[in-house]
Amino acid sequence: MPTGRSRRTSPVSSEFGLIQLLQAQVAQPDRQVFQGIGDDTAILKTSPSEWMLITTDLLAEGVHFDPATSSFEDIGYRAAIANLSDIAAMGGTPRFMLVAIAIPPICSTGQIQQLYRGIMQAASPYRVRLVGGDTSASKRGLFLSITLTGTVKPGQALLRSGARVGDRLYVTGTLGDSHAGLDLLRKRPSTGHPVMRPTQARFLLARHHRPSARVAEGLWLVKHGFAGAAIDLSDGLTGDLRHLCEESGVGADIVAASLPLSPACRAYAATHHLDARQIALQGGEDYELLFTVPLSKQSRFERLAARTTFRFTCIGSITPKPFGLRVRTDEGGTQTLPVTSYEHFLRPF
Q1: How far apart are CA 160 and CA 240, in angstroms?
Q2: Pairwise CA distance, residues 132 & 96, whole Å
Q3: Class of 160-336 in CATH
Q4: Is the alpha carbon torsion for 153, 157, 162, 166 positive or negative?
Q5: How does DSSP classify residue 335?
Q6: Could you tell me whether strands 143-152 and 230-232 are parallel, antiparallel, or unpaired per DSSP bridges?
Q7: Mean of the pLDDT values across residues 124-149?
Q8: Mind listing the pLDDT tens digit for each residue in 268-314?
Q9: What pLDDT is attached to residue 111?
Q10: What kind of fold does domain 29-152 have according to CATH?
């Protein structure tokens, strides 16, 4: 009998389709599991006073990062932020970290030390302790996997499934900056009118190499009970909004003019003759939070938010599922919101 992969085996064509297949294949009821596959983190009912959050991310050279355009410190930093952002999206407090790494022959000990330095630079402000992991050799490319645990009070975690029709949609920070920063690393300097200032270019590069995890914002939302549902923007607004809506069984109406854009992102778009709003819609790895606020809580939310240093922007509302995902144009009409954000297996890095 022949062994190995059959010639009839088709390649994986959809990351999220594969996740759904695996979820159906391995799902088993367990009284300790409050939330399994399908959210930013798993939630385990570990004690009556505190539940555990646990998340993991795998980063592969040539898919998630390129050492030619990122330092090893930056690679480690962004890897940690990806996990910290998952905890933030649940409204949790990050606690302990494990790191597994597969190292190719071309990497030096000094470079791996720089990688771990970046990881700890991201984790230290949250008092996260590195408690273990694994190391291995790699024949081709660097692989980095981080597992992070966190905690949340029972029943208070923010889920993707909590959005309801009529809720208002909010995001933290500004959108599209990381995508613009990545494009700056890949493109030659523009030969057109030099709209961008050097400080703006540095801002976008920093937003790509050193993004922020919105842990404080997530904790604040949970403390005041404002958010109905939440997700972090790692794959891009259009894709992550789709995940939230699918889990909640709803649609969404986005107002294009409301998308929060930094002056640097606007300048980048103008310099390269691009639509800044499209960058905001499709750009990934901003690690901002997308969340819903029930209409009945909106006034109080806005009032208390104004007293903080957080930046929250209302970008639309939740609609019935049959309406799908729509974007409202400046002219007042609506268009179907295309899902243009990143998905593995569909296009190369």
Answers
A1: 10
A2: 9
A3: alpha beta
A4: positive
A5: E
A6: unpaired
A7: 96
A8: 999 999 999 999 999 889 999 999 999 999 999 999 999 999 999 99
A9: 97
A10: 60s Ribosomal Protein L30; Chain: A; (3.30.1330)
Task: Render pLDDT for 221-250 as a digit per residue (tens, 0 to 9).
Answer: 999 999 999 999 999 999 999 999 999 999
CATH 3.90.650.10 segments of the chain: 160-336
Residue 321's alpha-carbon distances to 166, 248, 315, in angstroms, are: 12, 9, 18
DSSP string spanning 117-157? HHHHHHHGGGTPEEEEEEEEE-SSS-EEEEEEEEEE-TT--
Burial of 15 (0-12, 13-18, 19+ CB in 10 A): middle
pTM for the full predicted model: 0.88
Q: Check if the beta carbon of residue 229 is closer than 8 Å to that of residue 162.
A: yes
Which tokens in the block code for residue 12? 């994986």
Residues 6 or more apart whose CB falls under 8 angstroms from that of 63 comprise 344, 349
43 in Cβ contact with 157 (< 8 Å): yes
Contact indicator for 145, 98 with CB cutoff of 8 Å: no
pLDDT at 164 over 80: yes
Q: What is the mean pLDDT of residues 311-325?
A: 97
- Please name every residue paired with 65 in a beta bridge, in sequence order, or none if there are none: 61
Tell me which amino acid residue 53 is. Answer: L
Query: What's the half-sphere exposure (Cβ side, CA atoms, 13 Å) at 79?
Result: 35
Residue 91 carries which DSSP code? T
